[in-house]
Amino acid sequence: MQYIYAFLVGGAICLIGQLLIDKTKLTPAKILTGFVIAGVALSVLGLYQPLADFAGEGAAVPLSGFGNLMAEGMKDALREDGALGILTGALKSAAAGIGAAIIFSLLGGLLGKAKGKD
Known about the structure:
The chain crosses the membrane at residues 6-22, 29-48, 94-112. This protein is mainly α.
């Protein structure tokens, strides 16, 4: 059942994104930023963790999960490091994912062949 829950929640998050693309004049960058901010806001309100516990990776993989990861990292660092944790916690918690994205993007750029827009 965990796979079904992950599929349904992840699919619902993607559906919301697609509806925002189709029905509004928001740019994709604004929608993606909105998903990160929504993840942070839901995490601060204590609503994202129950969703992540229910849906697993269906809630963790979308960009709202990235916002949740950053908010949780900031809360943990704030407890451990005080006010300095506000500045460092989000990046520490997301560093592995950001680093992997940079490395795989670099590899894709080096190994792939660019095509022109024709």
